[in-house]
Design a protein that fits this description.
alpha+beta, 313 residues, globular, cobalamin, two-stranded parallel ribbon, NADH Oxidase, QueG, 10 strands
Length: 313
């Protein structure tokens, strides 16, 4: 083995060890190159308007598929997973919010960890240029995570792993350093159709294809206009996001509670009843969801979602 190969292997090992120290679930590395297989899929999905009113999905098509257009001279995409599965969940017979939004907004939590990892790389290896990405730039995070062997993209279009299911965030570091690359894993969905059968709005239109414009998460978070009458009675009490296709996935029986204190919910959140949700005030919203991802839909958006369920119940 020559010196160069020894270095890229040693550096990859160093980076993975540090990512674990920072609390990441796992770390995989792939070569920064054009995502040839994803290009026709993304184009077809957009042409069928499965992004609904999420116009940003149409932007930067080339950048979504080619990391070298995001980071000049980039050679490696480092994909990282951070567990958010909660130890305790909301009381039953309440309006529900997606588990990823229980605690502090993940953008802040992960970005801080990524910056620490990039700093570590520069300190240990030398002059390395790169950028951190947390769901806020045109990066196909699930495709990169799958390419680097962290899991496979399941029939519900989420990244799945045999060891820990799918309740985790995905983030990336794109850097101009060559590293030892990991290989993709195999698909373990088999003949299972649990997610397809359970989706309340039939948003999984075929295995591995989700019509984003039919998803409860889209209606409760992304859609800014009125929720259409066509989905009346189909929300299963979800008012922010939806976890149904993850909750029914057999691989999520291996989910384990996260160890990140910042993801712990406000004490009042888990015990809130439907009555308390309906009577929610701006002050209580600001207190319970301080620095939370739920703020994305704003108080008015959450009120709209609750009213929609109340009117149709």
């Amino acid at each position: 083995m020559n010196i160069k190969n020894k270095n890229i292997e040693r550096w990859a090992t160093l980076i993975k060890a540090e990512s674990k120290r920072l609390g990441f679930l796992s770390c995989g590395i792939s070569k920064a190159e054009f995502l040839e297989e994803e290009a026709p899929r993304l184009e077809k999905w957009l042409n069928k308007n499965m992004h609904g009113e999420m116009q940003y999905m149409q932007n930067h098509f080339d950048k979504r598929l080619d990391p070298t257009k995001l980071v000049e001279g980039s050679k490696s995409v480092i994909s990282l997973l951070l567990n958010y599965y909660p130890e305790k969940k909301q009381v039953k017979n309440s309006y529900k919010i997606s588990k990823y939004a229980y605690g502090k907004d993940y953008h802040f939590v992960i970005k801080d960890k990524l910056k620490q990892l990039l700093y570590f790389i520069k300190e240990e290896i030398g002059e390395v240029n790169g950028r951190v990405f947390v769901d806020s730039a045109p990066v196909l995070d699930k495709a990169w995570a799958a390419k680097s062997g962290l899991g496979w993209i399941g029939k519900n279009s989420n990244l799945l792993t045999q060891q820990v299911g799918s309740f985790y965030f995905i983030a990336e570091l794109i850097i101009d350093l060559e590293l030892k690359y990991d290989n993709p894993t195999t698909d373990h969905c088999g003949t299972c159709t649990a997610c397809i059968d359970a989706c309340p709005t039939q948003a999984i239109v075929e295995p591995y294809v989700v019509d984003g414009s039919k998803c409860i998460s889209y209606f409760t978070i992304e859609l800014k206009n009125e929720i259409p009458p066509s989905v009346e009675g189909k929300f299963d009490d979800w008012i922010f996001g939806c976890d149904v296709c993850q909750d029914v996935c057999p691989w999520n029986r291996f989910s384990r509670p996260h160890q990140e204190p910042l993801f712990n919910p406000h004490p009042d959140l888990l015990s809130m009843t439907k009555k308390e949700w309906t009577e929610l005030t701006q002050d209580v919203f600001s207190k319970v969801f301080k620095k939370s991802a739920v703020k994305r839909t704003k108080f008015s958006g959450l009120q709209r979602n609750i009213s929609f369920l109340n009117e149709k119940s």
